[in-house]
Design a protein that fits this description.
Blueprint lengths: L1 H5 L3 H21 L5 H23 L4 H18 L5 H37 L1
Length: about 120
């Protein structure tokens, strides 16, 4: 859970990138760029190069790191589960078994009745 809270949403990252670009654009405009197009091109190139640098630095976590994170989160979620007592489990199991037998008897009788009906109609 703490790992999830540390990550920032993509929209916030984009906002921070836009603020940084605005700062570079304003400083570039004051340093003597004659056209706004060159400032826009320069800022977009800078953003692309920064993105590629961050991609190579951070990289994708390897398989074992992902697997360990997954099992750690599974363990935390299993601690939150309210497990039934032995008495509750036994009672629920008995109810399920009785229900299965009742449905089986009903379907058996229904099948027997339909088969007799088909025999009467065909003979």
């Amino acid at each position: 859970m703490s790992r999830l809270q540390k990550k920032k949403p993509v929209s916030e990252k984009k906002k921070q990138g836009a603020v940084a670009e605005d700062k570079t654009d304003s400083s570039a405009g004051s340093s003597g760029f004659s056209s706004s197009k060159s400032a826009i091109v320069a800022s977009s190139l800078k953003a692309k190069s920064e993105k590629s640098l961050t991609d190579t630095k951070a990289g994708e976590p390897n398989f074992f790191k992902k697997a360990m994170d997954f099992f750690r989160e599974v363990k935390m979620e299993l601690k939150k589960v309210t497990w039934p007592t032995r008495k509750q489990t036994t009672g629920t199991t008995i109810v399920v078994i009785i229900f299965v037998f009742v449905v089986a008897v009903f379907l058996g009788l229904f099948d027997l009745g339909l088969s007799k009906l088909v025999q009467v109609v065909l003979t």
